[in-house]
Amino acid sequence: MTTINPSLVKTWVFLAQSTDHKLASAKFLAHKKIKSNYGSITLAKIYLEQQQDKEIEVVVI
Fold it and tell me: The dihedral of CA 49, 58, 36, 28: what is its sign?
């Protein structure tokens, strides 16, 4: 997997979780990017945690 800048991923997560109706199209695009790169918002958040703390090891079962 290519490394995506954590700031961009944080922005996607923020937009995907936004309740502001003015951000509806950005929210849709953010969901699409998260889905294609990580599969879910939860996995995107795990990626962000792992980028902050290099000692975190993620194992998917």
Answer: negative
